[in-house]
Amino acid sequence: MNPYFAGGGRWTASLLFLLGAALSPAQEIPLPPEIRVTSWNLKNYLYTNRPAQEGSSTRPKPAREQQAVVSILLRIRPDILGVCEMGTEQDLAQLQEALKAGGLDLPHREHVQGNDPDRHLALLSRYPITTRQPVTGLRYLLDNNEFPVQRGFLDVTVAVAPAYTLRLVGTHLKSRRDVPEADQALMRRNEAHLLRQHLDGVLAAAPETNLLVYGDFNDTRDQPGVKAVKGLRGSGAALTEIAAKDDSGERWTYYYPEADEYSRIDFLLASPALLPEVREAQSFLYSGKDWLQASDHRPVTAVIQPDDLAKKPRPKPRSAPASTN
């Protein structure tokens, strides 16, 4: 018999208790003081390791633009990075490795394959991804024609610590580019309504969810699509915009050279449960002059100061509203 256990069951139980306490994940993984979540449309981060496909009108992202993306992210140092216009899984892995080589290790990743063959939603995270629930098969009717949601919706939950999870839903709604099939604004509005239906389901099932919705909405805050995603004020499930600013107090995120127009079309939206933990004064838009070398969008970052879920008041359950589509 092992002499350490010769004292009988009482000593065995005591030793096992001490071992369990010493190895407790809750003690080993404390909540971080803050979480930085960055959302960025990378402007065709495509074909980084190979030439463009023959016959494709989409060119590879030049090496100098790739380097600018990496350089900016190494200055922002996000804990979670949600991106639009990512190329293949290999492109995402290339960005992940470039960031790691620069000292920013985001080992966990998600890549969503929607109907768009070239541009995808993707996410890199310092924290483990515990659930993946991509939404890629949604369709809608417009003028008696059926259309897919082009990029789908990214939906993951990350475990920041045993007592704290963060759910992230990423979107890249229909561009403002005119297409012959239908009115581009109506297409985008339909995609926005489908996104809101998905969010209603999430919050009806678990109102206490720390939910952050991010991405390129391709509309300004006064437009119906953005309002639809935010939801009805007073409903108990409305999302609140994190009004990040740059060093000059400006809030625009996108430059449209054809119109010489600056606008805010990229958003970070917080659920009622998450909102008290958002530090809006510390959240920010990237202010460096090199932003246009990387993309036609500027990255926007939310700073979250997490609280233990056990200490948070839980919103009352609610029913999902009927479809408005």
How would you portray this structure in words?
The chain has helices spanning 9-22, 25-28, 63-76, 89-101, 184-205, 224-230, 291-294, and strands at residues 35-45, 80-86, 108-112, 120-125, 129-132, 139-142, 145-148, 154-161, 164-172, 211-216, 240-241, 254-256, 261-263, 266-270, 284-285, 300-304. Residues 1-26 and 317-325 have low confidence and may be disordered. The strands form 4 sheets. It has a 6-stranded mixed sheet with strand order 3-4-2-1-16-15, with helices on one face. Helix 5 (184-205) runs parallel beside helix 6 (224-230). It is built from 7 helices and 16 strands. With 325 residues, the protein is an alpha+beta fold. The radius of gyration is 22 Å and the shape is globular. It has a single domain, classed as Deoxyribonuclease I, Chain A (4-Layer Sandwich), CATH 3.60.10. Helix 3 (63-76) links the parallel strand 1 and strand 2. The longest helix is centred in the middle third of the chain and has 22 residues, at 184-205.
Write the layout of secondary structure elements.
Layout: H1 9-22, H2 25-28, E1 35-45, H3 63-76, E2 80-86, H4 89-101, E3 108-112, E4 120-125, E5 129-132, E6 139-142, E7 145-148, E8 154-161, E9 164-172, H5 184-205, E10 211-216, H6 224-230, E11 240-241, E12 254-256, E13 261-263, E14 266-270, E15 284-285, H7 291-294, E16 300-304
Parallel strand pairs: 1-2, 9-10
Antiparallel strand pairs: 1-16, 2-4, 3-4, 5-8, 6-7, 8-9, 10-14, 11-14, 12-13, 15-16
Helix pairs in contact: 5-6
